[in-house]
């Protein structure tokens, strides 16, 4: 794909620069008629991405699900300085959660985001495969390959596909490891190619599932938390009121996962703009909070608390510069019974390397993932993890054209009855000249009974936020509907083919969609 000049537009995902790539893609392969399917997805350039992504969905199922034994989990956090065209530098932070699949091989999801410089809002999500060798007493050599999709902040990423090989040397310090890395970041259809040194921090743990085909009661062996160890998941609706001139208001939808250790709570918070002409704004933050119970029984009494958060965000013309953000808030949580809690918070937001300041108000609804401390142990719940590839046809672009794009994504489905499930999803473009187009969705679905047959059918409806990559989504709020047919390849594994559509509530996006998904179920 030819290089195109890039007009710098800090923090804005809907960058005019991407429009040139859109025209090139349309001219080469997109007819703009009907739903052409997946034939443009499997070019030689993208084949490795597709294979790695499908493999990541099934990584946790390589070991026997029937045994319900804990899987090794290798978590990493790294930082490096990437060189962009024109000599500009951008700090890049990445994290991964890799499952052990045997013989010192690891596979799982990873995400990268801008942290310093002037490109706040660049995010890339994908999968990573890693091989580890012992090279001496308490020394490890890691070699890995990453493929993902994303972009933002007018970085010339083309279609959004990012490839990143890495070699790292780490010293085992007991509970964690530290080391240095050498990596190469490349966007094949864009203009970014950079080799650099980095710092790496890693620690090992376990993913603890039950067998999804057998009923189970209580926690996993030893009374430990199941899954990744989080206690709850919450859907959030947030309003930012930025100070300064002119004053600006934006609305966000998002999700938070959280773990409680006594009165302390920590987790990960992610959100995207859905109102306020900031389509394309996205943030991911680590959170830490402290609660105080207002009654004798902490399981049923209201709680008050404070929460801080630090992370990265940008896009949608929100001026975060390098992307680093900080928040502090106070709030109240009120248990509703049945494992659900509602809450509200108010506080302040500030960018750490730009003048951006603002006030925060947030409402949230949480669902327990684990029995509360002191509560009777409940039965296990079927949970599906999925990797998915989407083809969106005739997506409206800012230059007035319509052309196809492709995304990769992750889904988490949690069943609340034998046929009804709740779903949280995230998708990012990796082809179609829409690098930086990202989507976050929450909703519900219905599925037929899981019988002994090979086929299962279902449908789902979701709402969320989307933007970036020159795709017209108005304020960012979207609705997605999908009907799917699944073909079982094992007791807990399934291929799914879906057809549906995506529509923005205030923009011109209204497109048919096809989806290919690999799903694996656990009981958590």
**β-strand amount:** over 45%
Low-confidence stretches: 1-42, 60-67, 215-221
In angstroms, what is the radius of gyration? 22 Å
Cα distance, first to last residue? 45 Å
Percent range of helical residues: under 10%
Report mean pLDDT, rounded to a whole number: 83
Strand order of the largest sheet: 1-2-3-4-5-6-7-8
The best one-word shape is globular
Profile the largest sheet: 8 strands, antiparallel, barrel
| H-E string | HHEEEEEEEEEEEEEEEEEEEEEEEE
Tally of contiguous helical segments: 2
Write down how many β-strands occur, each being a DSSP E stretch of 2 or more residues: 24
User: Structural class, from helix and strand content?
Assistant: mainly beta
The oligomerization state is single chain
Written description of the protein model:
With 524 residues, this protein is mostly beta strands. 5% of the residues lie in helices and 58% in strands. The protein is built from two helices and 24 strands. The protein has helices at residues 17-28, 44-58, and strands at 71-83, 89-102, 105-116, 123-134, 139-151, 161-172, 177-186, 193-207, 232-242, 248-261, 264-275, 282-293, 303-314, 324-337, 340-351, 357-368, 382-396, 402-415, 420-431, 438-447, 455-467, 477-488, 493-504, 510-523. The chain has an eight-stranded antiparallel barrel. A hairpin with a 5-residue loop joins strand 9 and strand 10.
Question: What keywords describe this structure?
Answer:
524 residues, mainly beta, eight-stranded antiparallel barrel, disordered N terminus
């Amino acid at each position: 794909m030819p290089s195109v000049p890039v007009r710098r537009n800090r923090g804005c995902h809907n960058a005019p620069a991407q429009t040139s790539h859109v025209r090139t893609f349309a001219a080469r392969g997109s007819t703009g008629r009907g739903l052409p399917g997946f034939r443009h997805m499997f070019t030689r350039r993208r084949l490795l991405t597709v294979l790695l992504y499908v493999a990541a969905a099934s990584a946790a199922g390589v070991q026997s699900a029937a045994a319900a034994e804990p899987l090794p989990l290798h978590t990493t956090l790294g930082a490096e300085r990437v060189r962009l065209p024109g000599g500009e530098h951008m700090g890049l932070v990445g994290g991964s959660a890799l499952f052990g699949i045997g013989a010192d091989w690891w596979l799982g999801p990873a995400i990268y985001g801008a942290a310093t410089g002037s490109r706040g809002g660049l995010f890339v999500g994908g999968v990573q495969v890693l091989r580890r060798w012992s090279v001496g007493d308490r020394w490890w050599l890691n070699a890995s390959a990453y493929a993902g999709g994303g972009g933002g902040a007018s970085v010339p990423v083309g279609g959004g596909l990012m490839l990143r090989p890495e070699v790292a040397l780490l010293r085992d310090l007991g509970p964690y490891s530290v080391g240095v890395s050498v990596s190469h970041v490349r966007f094949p259809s864009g203009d970014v190619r950079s080799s650099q040194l980095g710092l790496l921090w890693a620690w090992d743990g376990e993913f603890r599932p039950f067998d999804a085909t057998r009923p189970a009661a209580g926690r996993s062996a030893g009374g430990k938390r199941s899954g990744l160890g989080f206690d709850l998941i919450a859907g959030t609706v947030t309003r930012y009121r930025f100070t300064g001139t002119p004053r600006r208001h934006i609305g966000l939808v998002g999700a938070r996962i959280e773990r409680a250790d006594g009165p302390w709570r920590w987790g990960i918070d992610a959100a995207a703009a859905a109102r306020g002409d900031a389509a394309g704004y996205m943030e991911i933050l680590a959170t830490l909070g402290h609660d105080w119970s207002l009654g004798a029984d902490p399981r049923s009494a209201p709680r008050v608390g404070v929460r801080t958060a630090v992370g990265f965000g940008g896009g949608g013309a929100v001026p975060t510069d390098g992307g680093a953000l900080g928040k502090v808030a106070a709030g109240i949580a009120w248990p509703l019974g049945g494992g659900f809690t509602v809450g509200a918070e108010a506080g302040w937001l500030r960018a750490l390397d730009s003048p951006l300041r603002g006030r925060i108000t947030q409402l949230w609804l949480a669902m327990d993932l684990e029995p509360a401390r002191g509560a009777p142990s409940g039965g296990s719940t079927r949970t599906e993890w999925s990797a998915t590839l989407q083809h969106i046809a005739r997506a409206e672009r800012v230059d007035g054209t319509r052309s196809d794009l492709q995304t990769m994504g992750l889904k988490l489905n949690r069943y609340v009855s034998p046929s009804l499930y709740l779903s949280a999803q995230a998708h990012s473009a990796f082809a179609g000249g829409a690098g930086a187009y990202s989507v976050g969705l929450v909703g519900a679905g219905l599925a037929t009974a899981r019988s002994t047959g090979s086929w299962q059918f279902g449908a789902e409806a979701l709402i969320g936020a989307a933007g970036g990559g020159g795709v017209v989504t108005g304020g960012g709020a979207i609705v997605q509907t999908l009907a799917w047919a699944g073909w079982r390849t094992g007791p807990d594994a399934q291929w799914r083919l879906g057809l549906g559509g995506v529509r923005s509530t205030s923009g011109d996006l209204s497109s048919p969609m096809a989806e290919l998904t690999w799903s694996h179920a656990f009981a958590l």
